[in-house]
């Protein structure tokens, strides 16, 4: 794919669904299309160019490049998909569904659905364990309980009705986030095991639960309650910086996020943080390529 100097140049290039579809085929299959049902490469392009025919006797099914992907059965033109993906993968704080609806000339409901499907594409399918010096911390996301409508309030659980997000960031590396139900010892220990490589240097604040991991990790901590923020190489400034980015995204762009969908917003913020050294074009291509699997509207609104 050619390099683009601006989003305007990007739009001018991907101005037809045909151009978008050809790039999708290249990213998904390279030069050898494969059947989405049986995996065979014994396929032929049907007249018109949009669909393929599997030539295996046991299959013989027709398919397009969008089958089995997040784009399957979409009624939104690929031109609009590409524009939205370019924005969401590169914009410093993301974009609201209301603003995206205005830019794409679609309804807010359609833009909201589109946003969540793109966030699914920004989710790393198999994140690697972090290593070296890794900062760990938790943050609380959500409005104040006293400001909520009566039917939105939760039974107090010590979190003030907010959702807890665990985060781990490797110094000069990637960040992983995970929604957790509480800050009990077992929960935090499991979160560290799932995100941090055994034997790494783990830096935390004064949260006592992390001390239980000293057999598996070299543990260093700082005591924020005593106004201690740095002790030699021990600090949690990096993960605190990420929390600041995440909350500016949620409060400044979306204003509020339901606990049900919060993980996707965290994944979106993590993607941009982890790709900060990449060019805009590479960020877009990485998102475009991570399209396997589907996400239906019924799944998003299901209670």
Describe the structure.
By secondary structure, this protein is an alpha/beta fold. It has 2 domains: 1-16 and 72-121 and 275-303, no CATH class; 133-259, 2-Layer Sandwich (Nucleotidyltransferase, domain 5). Helices cover 37% and strands 14% of the residues. It has 10 helices and 8 strands. It has helices at 7-13, 17-29, 78-90, 97-104, 108-121, 185-195, 237-254, 262-274, 280-289, 297-301, and strands at residues 43-45, 51-54, 62-64, 133-141, 163-170, 175-180, 201-204, 218-221. The strands form 2 sheets. The chain has a 5-stranded mixed beta sheet, sandwiched between helices. A 3-stranded antiparallel beta sheet has the order 1-2-3, with no helix packed on it. Helix 7 (237-254) packs across helix 8 (262-274). The chain is elongated and about 70 Å long. The two termini are 41 Å apart. The model has no long low-confidence stretch (mean pLDDT 91).
């Amino acid at each position: 794919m050619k390099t683009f100097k601006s989003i305007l140049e990007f739009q001018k290039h991907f101005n037809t669904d045909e151009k978008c579809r050809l790039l999708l085929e290249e990213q998904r299959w390279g030069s050898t299309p494969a059947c989405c049902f049986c995996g065979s490469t014994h396929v032929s392009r049907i007249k018109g160019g949009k669909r393929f025919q599997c030539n295996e006797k046991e299959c013989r099914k027709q398919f397009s490049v969008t089958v089995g992907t997040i784009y399957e059965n979409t009624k939104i033109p690929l031109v609009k998909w590409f524009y939205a993906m370019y924005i969401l993968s590169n914009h410093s704080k993301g974009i609201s569904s209301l603003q995206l609806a205005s830019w794409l000339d679609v309804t807010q409901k359609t833009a909201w659905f589109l946003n969540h499907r793109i966030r699914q594409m920004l989710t790393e399918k198999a994140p690697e364990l972090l290593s070296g010096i890794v900062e760990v911390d938790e943050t609380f996301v959500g409005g104040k309980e006293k400001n909520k409508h009566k039917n939105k309030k939760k039974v107090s659980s010590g979190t003030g009705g907010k959702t807890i997000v665990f985060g781990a960031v490797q110094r000069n590396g990637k960040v992983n986030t995970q929604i957790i139900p509480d800050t009990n010892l077992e929960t935090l220990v499991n979160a560290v095991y799932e995100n941090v490589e055994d034997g790494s240097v783990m830096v935390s604040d004064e949260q006592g639960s992390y001390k239980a991991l000293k057999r598996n990790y070299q543990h260093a901590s700082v005591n924020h309650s005593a106004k201690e923020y740095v002790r030699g190489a021990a600090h949690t400034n990096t993960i605190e910086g990420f929390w600041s980015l995440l909350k500016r995204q949620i409060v400044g762009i979306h204003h509020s996020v339901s606990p049900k969908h919060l993980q996707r917003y965290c994944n979106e913020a993590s993607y941009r943080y982890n790709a900060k050294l990449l060019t805009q074009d590479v960020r877009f291509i990485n998102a475009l390529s991570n399209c396997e699997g589907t996400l239906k509207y019924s799944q998003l609104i299901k209670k």
